[in-house]
Amino acid sequence: MRNFSIAIHGGAGTLVKGMMTSELEAQYKSALKEALDAGYSVLKNGGTSVDAVEKAVIVLEDSHLFNAGKGAVFTADETHEMDASIMDGKTLNAGAVSLISGIKNPISLSKDVMEKSEHVFLAGEGAMEFAKLNNYAIEDASYFYDEFRHQQWTEIKDTDSFQLDHAKKKDSKFGTVGAVACDKNGNIAAATSTGGMTNKKFGRVGDSPMIGAGNYANNETCAVSCTGSGEYFIRGVVAYDVACLIEHKEMPLADAAVEVISNRVLKLGGDGGLIAVNAKGEIAMPFNTEGMYRACKSSTGVQEVSIYK
Fold it and tell me: Which residue from 69, 118, 232, 293 puts its CA 20 to 30 A from 28's CA?
């Protein structure tokens, strides 16, 4: 039997240690572990990497602690606009949704786009129409209401500022959640979901739903889920960049991931991190910020749940 493994993240950025109470840190670690265990149990029981990453991301979307699903931040219009994507490394099939609202688990909708439509990427009203055709419940806005998120928005509403989850004056973090996994058959997958930027306007879309930018999977190279300053991750085609270094320069997974996060993205002016796995079950979780909510587990006995470096 091959090695199998999973890695998850709940965002990266300036996670100021002094502002993180021990109680809050315990909550984050508990939520990460719950998501990790949910995805790992799928793999352990012989499930696919696609099902494992979906399951892990659903747990993170259901937590108010992360900027995805229930914890999505407020837009300039005091609404929520969510994005998500998923990719199967075996077939290179992918599904993505953007600018959706009222959907409890955007990652499941993106999986349905991959499996039940002829398309890869659906956005806005069309994505919502597809959701309704597939019997998705539209949650009331109160489901997504979080006092802390609303306070973040209140501080900058009616201004031209926007925040990547929390701005520098707080504990600025790039709120995205994601998972990558390698199953017992050596097939890999990646999933990413986000609530975007606080106070965002004009239907802004980040890297999370963009295949190759914030999410990518190919059995021949790696599966990657990114979290960071989306505009830079789009310009750097970050997720695919890691795969390219493995394919064309024959770099090991860890070296390729570090090169992209610690060198190439920084040169563009971006910061953040990523998680990656390959078909051997190897894991990489580099970031160039003070911290990244992250966790991983593999059949070889590796297990980690961390926030800071």
Answer: 232
Write out the chain's pLDDT in tens, 309 residues: 789 999 999 999 866 666 778 898 999 999 999 999 999 999 999 999 999 999 999 999 999 999 999 988 888 888 899 999 999 999 999 999 999 999 999 999 999 999 999 999 999 999 999 999 999 999 998 899 888 788 878 887 777 665 554 334 444 556 899 999 999 999 999 999 999 887 788 889 999 999 999 999 999 999 999 999 999 999 999 999 999 999 999 999 999 999 999 999 999 999 999 999 999 999 999 999 989 999 999 999 999 999 998
Going 107 to 109 to 114 to 115, the CA torsion angle's sign is positive
Q: Has 75 been annotated as catalytic?
A: no
User: What are 116-124's contacts with CB under 8 Å, separation 24+?
Assistant: 119/95, 120/94, 120/95, 120/96, 120/211, 121/85, 121/95, 121/96, 121/97, 121/209, 121/211, 122/96, 122/97, 122/98, 123/97, 123/98, 123/99, 123/205, 124/98, 124/99, 124/100, 124/203
Pairing mode, strands 5-13 and 173-174: antiparallel
9: its two tokens: 């993240």
Handedness of CA 56, 57, 59, 65 (dihedral sign): positive
Which among 14, 75, 176, 227 is annotated as catalytic? 176
Domain with residues 5-308, CATH architecture: 4-Layer Sandwich (3.60)
